[in-house]
């Protein structure tokens, strides 16, 4: 930390030549502070990441080694727990999750891309009303809509149906996708759109040829976030699916039956469940940041 | 008569700036024709999304309002009928509602405050250039990517369990007796998981805010003798204000509906019965459709109050941003 006495921001002339020895000691102190901060940052980061790392590590242990009061570090590691999880039919649940996430994300994109484009067409008149509507539907707790949805699906015999679940995920993610993508579409320079119009390009060619490449990163970001939310969704999935269409989160939720030792196999199941989204998030980290932070702010 | 003709008519006279601007502006009626066309296109494009959003979220809510005035228990299918405000009276006199409301406010509020504070700290740490910056960022965002059900289970059994939990092992090293977190401190347990999951989210938004701050201004302040704390308080924090507001708003949207960690870790015991869990219990365990619907309606009204305040804030940011660019 600097020892210079804090002075109000001013344009007053300052002494132009500080004495060299003082400057050197200040720089050394600066470097020491910097190293300390880096070490501190890494301690915090690793502490923050620890539960994830420990989950993955535990997944490779035996049940006995996982369930010790003092953590076992040096122990035989194997893939047996993963095999056990897959034996319990985990693959089906992962596949259901994948179906619901991909299906809902594709439909969301098909609806949200034109909508976001429409909301960014100049002159923007009353578009804030539509935007307000979209974001306000996201504010509504899903719990407030679940009872009629449940009874309707029950009446139609569509409980435990992966398509029904996907449609609900569309409703859940659509506002977010429109909201995020609108900001990317607004960034398309007006001249490009106008040039395309003058060239006689009709609307769809304009959208596909001219605008889409510019907003592609934004679309990718929105798609990733929709996929993550659908993949991780628990409330609707646990109420509306039971056996055939069960997705990973509710299966995981009912995984622990409290009998015997289960920590290692639970860790293995959790590792498999989070793996696709964590990997996707890591690889597309930049997109995720753009989508969440930039898209929401601009 | 078109605008270009007029401009060509007086090329060399160099008219007053205001006049030239008026001349170059295309005539109004012509543009509004284009405006109408553009608006019609915009409407056509936005409609399908609005229809789907209405069908999937708004219509069910209207039906929920209807149900909330019905006397309807699924165990007694014959006795269904109009109940007037009976369900609302039951809700407000039952006592469960106020408890649940305070649990929701407490859990949501503490999780947001804590995750914004930790998120701000992490954002400040990760905004520096240091060894392994990229890797550290990657590791830090992981909790947000974790499936909430998995995060809740790992915290419940692997971190916070009284016998084999890592947190208790750490505490025992400090001489503290093991704590059965999810039964002894249920609300705190839920808050811990939520804070852990939402800190990266807040961090990402705040980091974007930090990176949008002009480096020159900060350097100028430092040259002028402002210490790091001083320039943080007087320059960085005001700059971050709108990002913090946004982080709180988005966090609030997601956390007000929180269900997963409660269903998995505490099952609504010990002051963790949030409104969405209470509604779930009444509807799907108690099978009291009418009463549960009333909870749903009240939850939405409360959310609207909170959200409209928050949204107005967001739109203020929105419009001031628009004005700047």
TrEMBL record, chain A:
SUPFAM superfamilies: MetI-like
InterPro entries: BP-dep_ABC_trans_perm (IPR050901), MetI-like (IPR000515), MetI-like_sf (IPR035906)
GO biological process, one term: transmembrane transport
Residue segments, region Disordered: 1-30
Keyword hit for NADP: no
Segments of skewed composition (Basic residues): 21-30
GO cellular component, one term: plasma membrane
Keywords linked to the UniProt accession: Cell membrane, Membrane, Transmembrane, Transmembrane helix, Transport
Main location: membrane
Biased composition, class Low complexity, residue ranges: 1-14
Annotated TM spans: 32-57, 98-119, 131-150, 162-181, 210-231, 262-284
Localization of this protein: Cell membrane
Key word Protein biosynthesis present: no
PANTHER family xref list: ABC TRANSPORTER PERMEASE PROTEIN, MALTOSE TRANSPORT SYSTEM PERMEASE-RELATED
Family, similarity comment: Belongs to the binding-protein-dependent transport system permease family.
Stated name of the protein: Carbohydrate ABC transporter permease
UniProtKB/TrEMBL annotation, chain B:
Residue ranges crossing the lipid bilayer per the database entry: 45-69, 105-126, 138-159, 187-210, 243-264, 292-315
Domain of life from the UniProt record: Bacteria
One record GO biological process: transmembrane transport
Pfam families named in the record: BPD_transp_1
Chief place where the protein resides: membrane
Cellular component, GO annotation: plasma membrane
Subcellular locations according to the entry: Cell membrane
Keyword terms of this UniProt record: Cell membrane, Membrane, Transmembrane, Transmembrane helix, Transport
Bilayer topology: Multi-pass membrane protein
PANTHER family: BLR7065 PROTEIN, INTEGRAL MEMBRANE SUGAR TRANSPORT PROTEIN
Family: Belongs to the binding-protein-dependent transport system permease family.
Protein name (record): Sugar ABC transporter permease
Lineage: Bacteria, Bacillati, Actinomycetota, Actinomycetes, Micrococcales
